[in-house]
User: Which sequence fits this backbone?
């Protein structure tokens, strides 16, 4: 890891108490803004820190580790779209607002809404985090020829908070009903929009993969620590080889997912997939590993793992959600398999 | 900032040197890798021919010994250069030098660490001339628990007289010499009574019996030792200090092999793709997903092996990191062979002749499946690796050594 990433990791571990999961929503976001992290990936010429995927990945991991309920990912997606935009009015002031902590959100599933012949937008955006705190939501049309921001305070836009099994991300349904596209809020059109949509999707998938790896590492740490402390039959559970071997298996899975994510960040995988599908495959693997570790974590904790006081269940729930965000494992593996077959023909 | 810029410049130079080495190795391999070695190696005799001629070519080109120190033919390569040479060998699907593996790696690194200069000048050049070495470590009752070995050596004047049995010695039936672990004392901890000897396989009293494996291959042998006399001069390290010498032998590969093997696994994915098409399953979404999953895991395995090697180059690896790479490789290799045999259906059940020395992924799926146990059992079984990972990386406690089962004896 380079110096920037090591420093980010250290700061994140100061900001978030490593032993306190799902920290306070507002305090966490205020802390992130104070650290200047919304500016992390904004180019230096626009007043940002000019860091890239690698630095972001570090923070996505750290957020996963403590299950921080913050809209960092949607804000990073919005920042990427805004910084690349040639059509957005007053781009500099948008950048300033983001750095100051304004929340712009985005579906973590799929940002697409229908576009009527009169140019108005309708449809439901699922899994939109922090819509209650956000000023705008980012949308893409089905033909990917238009990418725009929509103000959430317009009468044609309604939002409903969804009760989720995973309570570490406040998610909303956002419904657009014949919402007009405001020309000054257009982020990209035509080929630029298609390119941007693909980049945002890749970013979302990579972030979910990193979140999964960070959260999986925390889950395994917690489990191993518990086994070292919990005594039965006059000895710590960690002394039982049957349990040690299961933990070793999980550690091997974790390290493999970690290595794959890092290789992907370094742009150095030999995966025979296009960029978005590659990120989809990496996310699928990382989320699968996270889910496998979380599943075992509850079992290895025994009864205490089934109580809501213990944080184990928070990770289990996040792992299942991560498997769905940005597209399911089945969907990505199907596309990836088709591409791998074509590449090997 | 200036320092950083200079470091970057050095890096760029190194990168361009590596790139030209890559071109050099690649074009040499294009011209020299035997094209038909997989078809040819259908019996042991042909296998030996392939190994001998490929060894000669690689040694002469200087690509067989990149890990040897400077001053030796082909030696003095950086770890980055060694890695590159392995990547290219895998990419070219060149035969792996399994007949010479012990000589080139285990023997060489042990001799370099422990032998006298005179022994080195005598023995290392013979390796380059094609002397085959085998390893006499495991015994019928000392597998994962290697230190419990019982093959006994008694000192009589200038020689040790050795009696006992060794097993799982790779290709010992063709070996000229053997790295032999013997027990010279039963006092104190079991590691403390072991001595490391170099044995001539033509010595009187040495009998080698190949083991007939479940694949039909005879890659391993048993070695029986009956009053074999080994000169005291052929000892490495002091008497009863052999365990320390053994560590040099066991740590000689440094992760390069697993990186090469994961590269080879990636290079063999086309076999699964071809099988999917042959069986008309290309549009089967279940099969598509299985293939995607395997492809991704093979890449994860490569990433893991590569990351380990980089850590090792930076001196940042921990005990247990190598175990994770081996565990994961063994698992992915098994998945590879499992998918192949599953897709093959009844065709995979018709027994085809094996490719001797063909590596882990030959497309003879049942043979590949059975061969994959070599990676989950040999060189420290999965179970041993899991103990290492749990104890060294996760800090879980070791079982107390004095645990015994009451009434079952020791």
Assistant:
């Amino acid at each position: 890891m380079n110096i920037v990433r090591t420093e980010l990791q250290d700061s994140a571990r100061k900001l978030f108490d490593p032993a306190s999961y799902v920290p306070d929503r507002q305090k966490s976001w205020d802390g992130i803004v104070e650290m200047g992290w919304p500016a992390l990936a904004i180019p230096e010429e626009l007043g940002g820190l000019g860091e890239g995927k690698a630095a972001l990945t570090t923070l996505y991991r750290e957020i996963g580790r403590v299950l921080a309920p913050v809209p960092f990912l949607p804000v990073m997606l919005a920042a990427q779209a805004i910084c690349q935009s040639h059509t957005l009015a007053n781009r500099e002031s948008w950048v300033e607002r983001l750095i100051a902590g304004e929340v712009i959100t985005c579906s973590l599933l799929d940002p697409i809404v229908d576009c009527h012949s009169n140019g108005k937008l309708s449809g439901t955006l699922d899994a939109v985090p922090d819509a209650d705190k956000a000023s705008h939501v980012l949308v893409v049309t089905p033909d990917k020829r238009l990418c725009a921001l929509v103000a959430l305070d317009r009468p044609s836009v309604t939002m409903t908070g969804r009760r989720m099994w995973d309570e570490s991300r406040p998610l909303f349904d956002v419904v657009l009903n014949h919402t007009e596209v405001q020309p000054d809020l257009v982020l990209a059109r035509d080929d630029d929009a298609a390119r941007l949509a693909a980049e945002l999707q890749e970013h979302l998938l990579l972030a979910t993969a990193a979140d999964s790896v960070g959260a999986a590492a925390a889950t395994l740490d917690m489990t191993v620590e518990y086994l070292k402390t919990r005594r039965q039959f006059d000895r710590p559970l960690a002394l039982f080889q049957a349990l040690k071997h299961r933990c070793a298996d999980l550690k091997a899975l974790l390290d493999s997912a970690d290595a794959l994510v890092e290789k992907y960040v370094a742009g150095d995988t030999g995966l025979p997939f296009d960029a978005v599908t590659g990120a989809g495959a990496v996310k699928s693997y990382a989320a699968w590993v996270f889910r496998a570790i979380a599943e075992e974590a509850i079992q290895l904790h025994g009864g205490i793992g089934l109580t809501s006081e213990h944080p184990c269940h928070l990770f289990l729930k996040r792992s299942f959600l991560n498997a769905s965000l940005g597209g399911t494992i089945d969907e990505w593996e199907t596309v990836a398999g088709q591409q791998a077959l074509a590449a090997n023909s | 900032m200036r320092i950083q810029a200079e470091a970057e410049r050095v890096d760029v130079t190194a990168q361009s040197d590596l790139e030209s080495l890559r071109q050099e190795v690649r074009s040499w391999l294009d011209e020299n890798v035997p094209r038909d070695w997989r078809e040819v190696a259908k019996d042991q005799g042909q296998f030996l021919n392939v190994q001998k001629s490929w060894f000669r070519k690689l040694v002469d080109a200087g690509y067989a010994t990149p890990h040897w120190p400077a001053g030796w033919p082909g030696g003095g390569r950086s770890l980055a250069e060694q890695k590159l040479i392995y990547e290219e060998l895998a990419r070219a699907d060149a035969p792996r030098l399994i007949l010479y593996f012990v000589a080139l790696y285990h023997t060489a690194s042990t001799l370099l660490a422990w032998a006298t200069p005179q022994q080195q000048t005598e023995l290392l050049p013979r390796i380059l001339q094609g002397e085959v070495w085998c390893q006499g470590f495991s015994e019928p009752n000392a597998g994962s628990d290697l230190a419990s070995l019982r093959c006994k050596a008694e000192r009589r004047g200038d020689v040790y007289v050795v009696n006992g049995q060794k097993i799982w010695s790779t290709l010992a039936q063709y070996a000229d010499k053997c790295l032999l672990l013997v027990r010279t004392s039963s006092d104190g901890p079991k590691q403390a009574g072991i001595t490391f000897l170099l044995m001539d396989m033509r010595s009187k009293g040495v009998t080698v019996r190949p083991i007939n494996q479940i694949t039909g291959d005879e890659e391993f042998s048993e070695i029986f030792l009956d009053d074999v006399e080994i000169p005291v001069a052929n000892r490495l390290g002091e008497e009863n200090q052999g365990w320390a010498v053994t560590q040099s032998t066991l740590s000689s590969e440094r992760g390069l092999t697993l990186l090469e093997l994961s590269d080879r696994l990636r290079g063999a994915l086309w076999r699964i793709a071809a099988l999917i098409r042959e069986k008309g399953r290309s549009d089967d979404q279940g099969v598509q997903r299985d293939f995607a999953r395997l492809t991704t895991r093979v890449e994860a395995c490569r990433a893991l092996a590569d990351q380990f090697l980089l850590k090792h180059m930076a001196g940042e690896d921990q005990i247990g990191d190598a175990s994770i790479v081996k565990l994961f490789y063994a698992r992915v290799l098994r998945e590879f062979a499992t998918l192949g045999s599953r897709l093959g259906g009844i065709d995979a059940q018709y027994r085809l002749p094996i490719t001797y020395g063909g590596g882990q992924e030959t497309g003879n799926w049942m043979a590949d499946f059975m061969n994959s146990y070599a990676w989950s059992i040999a060189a420290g079984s999965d179970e041993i690796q899991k103990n290492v990972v749990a104890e060294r990386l996760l800090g879980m406690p070791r079982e107390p050594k004095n645990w015994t089962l009451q009434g079952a004896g020791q």
